[in-house]
Design goal:
With 186 residues, the protein is mostly helical. Helices cover 73% and strands 0% of the residues. Helix 2 runs antiparallel to helix 3 and helix 6 packs across helix 8.
């Protein structure tokens, strides 16, 4: 049985399953959910905690999952709300990486990481889901419980906002270099 068939079988049996199904869900979705949560929370250790809570909630509420629907979307929805709860609990709305967190930003530049940290959790989630995980608008809509058209529009707005932040950062950096040069000219 290949991975896709196993995932389809898991979609059909998760609600009625036990620890074996939870183990398969962790195997299939653990790392992708960790990247997703890290993208939203901008803190690796908090992302690890959020993923653990996500799987705990999924296991405890597995009877609420409808067999045959997308387990992936259901888990991502739980993860998203877990991340939002984490943010609310800490009352942080501007995110900076913790001093003890690893400096890696899942393969993205510091400038992009900084620009992403200025977006809302919803905006980061949509951008990450669409670009990094290549999710369809239908899947994003299912994860966030919005219409497909709303997912598309919110993604486009977030993408434009991110592009604007990146352009603004580049202009500010260039301006700082010019100012420094002007101050140090002989």
């Amino acid at each position: 049985m290949d991975i896709l068939q196993e995932k389809d079988l898991l979609d059909q049996t998760f609600a009625d399953g036990g620890e074996a199904e939870l183990g398969l869900a962790i195997e299939f979705y653990g790392q992708p959910l960790l990247r997703y949560c890290h993208n939203i929370l901008c803190d690796y250790h908090e992302a690890q905690d959020a993923v653990q809570v996500t799987f705990l909630k999924a296991y405890e509420n597995r009877t609420k999952y409808r067999n045959g629907t997308s387990l992936s979307a259901w888990l991502y929805r739980i993860a998203y709300h877990t991340c939002i709860d984490t943010i609310r609990r800490k009352t942080l709305f501007f995110f900076t990486p913790a001093s003890g967190a690893p400096k890696t930003h899942t393969g993205i530049s510091d400038e992009l990481f900084e620009a992403l940290s200025r977006l809302s959790a919803m905006e980061r989630s949509l951008i990450y889901g669409r670009i990094m995980e290549e999710r369809s608008y239908r899947e994003l809509a299912e994860i966030h419980r919005i219409t497909e058209a709303a997912a598309r529009k919110r993604y486009e707005r977030a993408r434009k906002k991110l592009a604007g932040l990146l352009r603004k950062d580049n202009r500010q950096e260039e301006s700082s270099i010019v100012d420094w040069r002007n101050q140090h000219e002989i």
